[in-house]
Amino acid sequence: MSMSMTGTGTTVSHTAADMSRWAGRAEPFETARACYWYQLAQPYTFDKTSQHIGLIGFACDQGVRRNQGRVGARAAPPLIRQVFAALPVIAELQQRFDGQLPALLGDAGDIHCHDNDGFAERALEEAQLKYADKVSHIIQQGGLPIGLGGGHAIAYGSFLGLWQALQQTDTTNDTDALPRIGIINFDAHLDIRQSDVATSGTPFRQIAEHLGEQGQPFNYCCIGVSRFSNTAALFDRAEQLGVHIISDEECTNKKWKKIAAQIASFIDDVDIIYLTIDMDCLPSSVVPGVSAPAAYGISLAFVERAVKLILSSGKVKVADIAEINPTFDVDGRSCKVAARLLATIIEQHLLITETH
Ligand SMILES: N=CN[C@@H](CCC(=O)O)C(=O)O
Ligand SMILES: [Mn+2]
Ligand SMILES: [Mn+2]
């Protein structure tokens, strides 16, 4: 474990995969087709790997605290993993990767941010950098990093990891040669707040500024935006930044074909995608365990359908799932939904991945 002190009582650390979390049903009397994810996951090998997926936790909620939200999200990564571990591996994947499945999924452990109720210490920023290093490393090894939040401040870390990986692979140092980055966020909130510190409500404004300083365009599509969860000031900023907004009401009332065409057109205009799912895009009846529950929300069926469409582009280079707060969960249902979306991302990614 690597650990560093960032202020009084504040620590940021990385812990390696805890394989005891990867457990599930034992079925000795079934055929080999009774296969679960817990049987396949292995510790992520940072030195040399052919693993296609690297799961990395961001156990941090200082951004939520700074954003005046309800803390608790830092407990989520191991719980989401644990529920995902017990899900079965679908038949299509078993057929496709016959015999190779155990080499596909790596658990890269967790970045922890213990801020001890501190507001001002720079633990969040350090946690974002440490997390970004892992994300970048996994991308450079050819894998898809999937971040497990933590608060939505994970988004700035995921983006930084992608950015670092692009810088490493761009030998020309020519920013014009960089691929066009698209960001797709499922969220009731725009998360482009103006603030003197980074929070869970600022990541996409920070990304916009970062890209602006580098002379790069900010291509941001936010799906599930609620008019009751964002101020006019935020909608003004979204307009200035050219954000593609698909509201929660559109997701519900418009025909799927129209929404799919909007998403597809956004995807067509970029080369690579960062996909992030803030779990508060779903209704509070489906996902009660978040800092800011949604009264309306968009359906799980819609989110899954859209996530599959986005993954099928083959452009997603990093993904994350954020804002699950186990303190407010009911019977583990929010973690269960997060685990289902995690499985959807993993399945879709592996189904479009070339076999060696
Ligand atoms: N990451 C979430 N951010 C939301 C939280 C809203 C709230 O706490 O009510 C936001 O800042 O808009
Ligand atoms: Mn949100
Ligand atoms: Mn958010």
From TrEMBL:
Cofactor(s) required, per the database record: Mn(2+)
Pfam family, one: Arginase
Superkingdom of the source species: Bacteria
Pathway assigned in UniProt: Amino-acid degradation; L-histidine degradation into L-glutamate; L-glutamate from N-formimidoyl-L-glutamate (hydrolase route): step 1/1
UniProt-listed Enzyme Commission number(s): 3.5.3.8
Catalytic activity from the UniProt record: N-formimidoyl-L-glutamate + H2O = formamide + L-glutamate
GO molecular function, one term: formimidoylglutamase activity
GO-annotated biological processes: L-histidine catabolic process to glutamate and formamide; L-histidine catabolic process to glutamate and formate; putrescine biosynthetic process from arginine, via agmatine
Protein role: Catalyzes the conversion of N-formimidoyl-L-glutamate to L-glutamate and formamide.
Protein name listed in UniProt: Formimidoylglutamase
Organism (species): Psychrobacter luti
Lineage per the UniProt record: Bacteria, Pseudomonadati, Pseudomonadota, Gammaproteobacteria, Moraxellales
